[in-house]
């Protein structure tokens, strides 16, 4: 009588735990810098330009800089791994911070705006870190692993805005103009982020995943796979979801400090409001990750769209004193749509083309957010804060339509390539036989001992 073959036990790759820890540390450190930069950016731009209509350029250039660098950093990740790409992005962000300090000190708005564009690299690092969390992840835990890295940003972005008043005081004591001193803190956090990623992200998760599927680590094999977004309609729809949620968030968030300042709120009150927003963006992301894994990606996306609608309703119908509630709902809606949508992006593309499609997702997300930030200032001037919130509802509608379309038949996960490489057959990474008949995702793989 033959013995039944035991069902393979699904486990994470042994390096996944370390990868998540290092990425989480980088997110926490970078989040402090991003929290300060976003919280005071619009005020600094208004100060150096002398015109509130240009205040939205801070968020616009941050997101635009992240978008511009998204694809180059994704290509660098394909060739050199996540460690090289993420460390490079953090160092570019450090250069951007130094440029902002110089421009703010000299009251030279072109230099300051150029610094915001370079600092956008920190946004690209933030976005690509969440994808790096899925390189070695089991499919059934992909949403949770991604959301864990997103969640760790909570530490930084909640604490960051609270450092604006003391950072400003320190800067004034050092002879720097008002608001400029806060960016000294941003620079320090970017330097620590780069050090943490460069030292700790070993082994590199993407290079390890490439080795597991039989590719030579660090070689680009995406040419054998279709990488046009139109060839992967479900991934394209997921990108629309993520981009529309990001545009809604940037459009409203970027001008909230200006709106509150004009309404007579103190710098401390503005900081509290921005902390509520960033807490909403990140604090409950693990909950949305679990929902994405258990309830479904699209269902979780629709929950996020409902939360975004709630934020808009508060802005339109309730007084400015409830801005923390509105911004918290805005952050929660962004979190749900981004966690579930990013997970859908990762699993809707072939493995070999996945880093490039992820980079294009960040590109579209950044460009859409930049566009929303660019139009937010003029809309605020013409229609007020309530009118701005209603205008951003158009992006919510686009996200809902894309999410529903992703459920249509024929939008399934793209098939994996069947081409072979010099190292062996193409297989679905990062899962496979590790040792003692255990596998990841149930797919056959070379033994763990064969992995570099």
Automatic annotation (TrEMBL):
Keywords: Membrane, Transmembrane, Transmembrane helix
Compartments where located: Cell membrane
Domain of life: Bacteria
Major subcellular location class: membrane
Bilayer topology: Multi-pass membrane protein
Compositional bias ranges of the Basic and acidic residues kind: 443-452
Family annotation (InterPro entries): MFS, MFS_dom, MFS_trans_sf
Gene Ontology annotations for the cellular component aspect, listed alphabetically: plasma membrane
SUPFAM superfamilies per record: MFS general substrate transporter
Pfam families reported for this sequence: MFS_1
Transmembrane feature ranges: 20-40, 52-72, 84-102, 108-125, 146-164, 176-201, 235-255, 267-291, 298-318, 390-407
Sequence segments annotated as region (Disordered): 409-452
PANTHER family, sorted: MAJOR FACILITATOR SUPERFAMILY PROTEIN (PTHR23534:SF1), MFS PERMEASE (PTHR23534)
The protein, known as: Predicted arabinose efflux permease, MFS family
Organism whose genome encodes this protein: Agrococcus jejuensis
């Amino acid at each position: 009588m033959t013995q039944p073959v035991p069902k393979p036990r699904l486990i994470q790759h042994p390096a996944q735990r370390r990868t998540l820890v290092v990425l989480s540390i980088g997110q926490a450190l970078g989040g402090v810098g991003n929290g300060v930069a976003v919280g005071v950016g619009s005020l600094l731009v208004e100060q150096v330009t002398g015109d509130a209509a240009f205040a939205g350029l801070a968020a616009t250039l941050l997101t635009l800089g992240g978008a511009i660098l998204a694809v180059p950093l994704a290509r660098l990740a394909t060739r050199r791994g996540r460690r090289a790409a993420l460390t490079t992005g953090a160092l570019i962000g450090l250069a951007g911070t130094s440029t902002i300090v110089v421009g703010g000190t000299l009251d030279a708005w072109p230099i300051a705006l150029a610094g915001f564009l370079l600092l956008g690299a920190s946004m690209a690092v933030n976005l690509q870190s969440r994808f790096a969390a899925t390189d070695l992840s089991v499919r059934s835990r992909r949403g949770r692993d991604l959301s864990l890295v997103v969640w760790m940003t909570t530490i930084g972005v909640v604490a960051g805005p609270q450092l604006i008043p003391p950072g400003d005081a320190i800067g004034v004591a050092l002879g720097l103009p008002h608001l400029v001193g806060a960016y000294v803190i941003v620079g320090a956090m970017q330097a620590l982020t780069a050090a943490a990623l460069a030292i700790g992200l070993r082994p590199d998760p993407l290079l390890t995943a490439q080795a597991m599927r039989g590719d030579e680590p660090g070689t680009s094999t995406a040419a054998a796979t279709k990488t046009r977004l139109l060839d992967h309609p479900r991934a394209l729809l997921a990108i629309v979801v993520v981009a529309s949620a990001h545009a809604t968030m940037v459009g409203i968030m970027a001008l909230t400090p200006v709106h509150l300042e004009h309404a007579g709120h103190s710098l401390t009150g503005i900081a509290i409001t921005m902390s509520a927003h960033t807490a909403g963006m990140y604090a409950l992301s693990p909950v949305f990750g679990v929902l994405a894994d258990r309830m479904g990606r699209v269902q979780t996306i629709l929950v996020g769209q409902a939360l975004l609608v709630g934020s808009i309703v508060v802005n339109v119908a309730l007084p400015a004193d409830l801005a923390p509630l509105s911004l918290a709902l805005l952050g929660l809606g962004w979190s749900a749509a981004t966690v579930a949508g990013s997970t859908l992006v990762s699993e809707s593309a072939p493995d070999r083309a996945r880093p490039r499609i992820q980079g294009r997702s960040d590109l579209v997300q950044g460009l859409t957010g930049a566009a929303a930030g660019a139009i937010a200032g003029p809309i605020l001037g013409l229609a007020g804060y309530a009118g701005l919130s209603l205008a951003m509802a158009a992006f919510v509608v686009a996200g809902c339509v894309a999410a529903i379309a992703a459920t249509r038949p024929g939008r399934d996960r793209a098939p994996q390539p069947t081409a072979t490489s010099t190292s062996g057959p193409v297989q679905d990474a990062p899962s496979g036989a590790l040792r003692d008949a255990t596998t990841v995702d149930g797919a056959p793989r070379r033994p763990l001992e064969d992995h570099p």
